[in-house]
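User: Predict C-C motif chemokine's structure from this.
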Amino acid sequence: ARPDMAAKLFLSILFIACYCSVTLAQVPTDCCLQLSTREIPKSVVANYRVQVGGQGCPFNAIVFVARGGRTMCAPSDEKWAHDLKHHVDHLRKLCKNTNYKHKRCTGVKPE
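Assistant:
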């Protein structure tokens, strides 16, 4: 009866461990809960990431990161937000080509 009990205990622990890892994987690290209604100036933005609604976050957004680390959320369907996203892509390329030494590369991080 002892080996049977040990097997049940092992399976119970395994089930709990798997359940916890699946649950933790679904927790978003950082979601926008509010969107900016005003355009964000190009000069302050150093990076961005895309937030997908329905994957733990309430809505789609483009999360811009300022040179100082502050995050600002923009509606993903706004033209100005896509223009700013393309600006950051261009900035990343410039910074990569200059080994992040260009004066405009402050706060821009390698991918």
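The CA atoms of residues 54 and 60 lie 8 Å apart.
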